[in-house]
Write a structure and sequence with these properties.
Layout (H helix, E strand, L loop, with lengths): L27 H11 L6 E5 L6 H14 L4 E5 L19 E5 L8 H16 L3 E6 L11 H7 L3 E4 L5 H14 L6 H10 L4 H18 L5 H13 L1
Helix pairs in contact: 1-2, 5-6, 5-7
């Protein structure tokens, strides 16, 4: 009796993590490469790296959602969310058109995972599929012990996601606010950059609070109102 290959569990993609929801800034070339690869017609392997908080996970989710919109099979998993799962997770993944694995550096030094990923990599590539990986450092700096796997991680296209400059962060705030139905001026955006945490995840979380406060008070996000909200938050 032939036993069917085990296919991994289905993971829901986040609805608001598409290419349309991402503010590209100076990273437009990266977006273009990822979109092309997500169609199955671009680079067969992309390694995306950069510091945390710049949107790598968002972009990998976006790749999968874009691929699915084209009727391609796609799989996403973040290796940093939990303790490393059983490498059996990789069983059957070679059948997917697009596989996106976030924080691939987590497998470094784990002999079982390195070997399992090496075997998956070869099967997936032999079938002409697309693999997109992310990490906080470039592939040659990840402490992979299996030499052949370390070599393979350096195949394909390596892209570094760039930090947004202050003007781009303000533009990103205005962009994100607009998606939430909020209106925020460039002056108010600059005020927030000056008086609040400047990393993007903190700014996105702040926008959610501002949205609630604006709705509750039925007020626009003027600088005096922003000062009031931040003062109230600091007293909590």
């Amino acid at each position: 009796m032939t036993i069917a290959k085990q296919l991994p569990l289905h993971f829901e993609f986040r609805a608001n993590q598409t290419f349309d929801d991402f503010f590209a800034g100076s990273n437009q070339e990266i977006i273009t490469h990822l979109q092309q690869s997500s169609t199955g017609n671009g680079e067969r392997q992309i390694f995306l790296w950069g510091q945390s908080g710049l949107g790598k996970s968002h972009l990998l989710q976006a790749c999968c959602q874009f691929a699915q919109s084209l009727q391609l099979s796609a799989f996403y998993f973040d290796l940093a969310l939990v303790e490393l799962p059983d490498p059996e997770l990789l069983t059957g993944l070679e059948e997917f058109d697009i596989v996106c694995l976030d924080n691939i550096g987590r497998i470094a030094g784990n002999e079982t995972w390195e070997l399992a990923f090496f075997n998956f990599f070869n099967l997936h590539r032999d079938q002409g599929r697309t693999l997109i990986l992310s990490a906080s450092s470039p592939p040659n700096e990840i402490a992979i012990r299996l030499p052949d796997l370390k070599t393979r991680l350096n195949w394909g296209l390596t892209l570094k996601i760039q930090t947004l400059c202050d003007n781009d962060k303000i533009a990103a705030l205005i962009f994100k606010a607009g998606q939430m139905g909020l209106e925020i001026s460039s002056q108010a955006g600059r005020f927030l950059l000056t008086h609040y945490d400047r990393d993007l995840p903190s700014l996105w979380a702040l926008l959610t609070k501002l949205d609630r406060a604006s709705l509750a008070a039925k007020r626009k996000l003027t600088i005096p109102f922003l000062k009031q909200i931040l003062n109230e938050e600091s007293r909590v």
